[in-house]
Specification:
By secondary structure, the protein is α+β, with helices and mostly antiparallel strands. It contains one helix and three strands.
Length: about 70
């Protein structure tokens, strides 16, 4: 199970270290295998887009079918 939402409190990007301010929104990506015990990662818009692109490229290059 995965949840993606805007960070409601102060956040710092886990990838580039950018902090949330008036110009930068931080997104929370929460993951759990059973719906309990969530693991939270925080990303700015650019790093989240980069992660998304990397996942798509890995799926395409390995021809993984969902």
């Amino acid at each position: 199970m995965i949840k993606i939402q805007k960070c409601k409190r102060h956040g710092v990007c886990n990838d580039c270290g950018r902090q949330q301010d008036g110009k930068t929104n931080i997104w929370e990506l929460k993951a759990s295998t059973v719906g309990q015990g969530w693991t939270t990662l925080m990303f700015c818009k650019e790093c989240l887009a980069s992660l998304n692109t990397g996942i798509v490229m890995a799926l395409f290059n390995n021809r993984i079918e969902l």
